[in-house]
């Protein structure tokens, strides 16, 4: 299941509004088919893996990060129907699909056909790989990641505004990889006016993975950019699973103040700036005690001379 989650994670940013599912088919201890949801959302991961497995799928076990779909679509047969017709004997599922069109119906359909079904295996890994899709279905908005490039002392620029480049090439390459796995990338009007950023992906072979561009601004239209008038407008992004917010300070502050950030990526450079521009302004906290328990360290790794720190928002349902 963890390998299936890895496959699904690789497709993140390419499948919205469909989920980025990963799937493996195992026969006699060997992988005979594997796949992830294709760009654009079709074919689904299970269909890709079943096609690869061919006749070897009969009597095999299928591992999928998300419950196979069961609702009718004019884009193709349901995955549950494909699994049944292929003769799969056992299906192992990471998590149930929260989409009300399927929610439990896929599992019911498989069991009715005599297939042994087990759900909830390595569910944390499955949820992590599908976090953008799950956020959109469960919260009505994309999963929102805030990216910050900081000095040791938490500055994003000198007093003059100079900020290129705080981090090194390895960190900047990782940012481009994160862009490739996002459906949309957003900056504020100040960043747009100062830098006219392209916000594209400049990694060899991934140029076509550049996400849609959005601008947080009031009353303006900019060719080639989608406009959000406020952070709350993310609730109308019904075809975006993962949104990456890149800056600047005012935009970061706006999203944090609205408590809409689910994950923070801090690319920290081994430099001291001293007096300079802070990454975030006032976000509504008046006591240190109120700041504790809101974020958890999720990961950390070196990127050349720099270090990546990953933090995740602790929501009420997780804290309980």
From TrEMBL:
Keywords: Hydrolase, Metal-binding, Multifunctional enzyme, NADP, Oxidoreductase, Riboflavin biosynthesis, Zinc. NADP(+) binds at residues 149, 165, 191, 195, 199, 248-254. Pathway: Cofactor biosynthesis; riboflavin biosynthesis; 5-amino-6-(D-ribitylamino)uracil from GTP: step 2/4; Cofactor biosynthesis; riboflavin biosynthesis; 5-amino-6-(D-ribitylamino)uracil from GTP: step 3/4. Residues 1-118 form the CMP/dCMP-type deaminase domain. GO terms for biological process: riboflavin biosynthetic process. The keyword Hydrolase applies. Substrate binds at residues 163, 179, 202, 246. Its EC number is 1.1.1.193, 3.5.4.26. GO terms for molecular function: 5-amino-6-(5-phosphoribosylamino)uracil reductase activity; diaminohydroxyphosphoribosylaminopyrimidine deaminase activity; metal ion binding. Zn(2+) binds at residues 44, 69, 79. Its cofactor is Zn(2+). Binds 1 zinc ion. Gene3D superfamilies: Cytidine Deaminase, domain 2 (3.40.140.10), Dihydrofolate Reductase, subunit A (3.40.430.10). The active site is at residue 46. PANTHER family: 2,5-DIAMINO-6-RIBOSYLAMINO-4(3H)-PYRIMIDINONE 5'-PHOSPHATE REDUCTASE (PTHR38011:SF7), DIHYDROFOLATE REDUCTASE FAMILY PROTEIN (AFU_ORTHOLOGUE AFUA_8G06820) (PTHR38011). Converts 2,5-diamino-6-(ribosylamino)-4(3h)-pyrimidinone 5'-phosphate into 5-amino-6-(ribosylamino)-2,4(1h,3h)-pyrimidinedione 5'-phosphate. In the C-terminal section; belongs to the HTP reductase family. In the N-terminal section; belongs to the cytidine and deoxycytidylate deaminase family. NCBIfam families: eubact_ribD (TIGR00326). This is Riboflavin biosynthesis protein RibD.
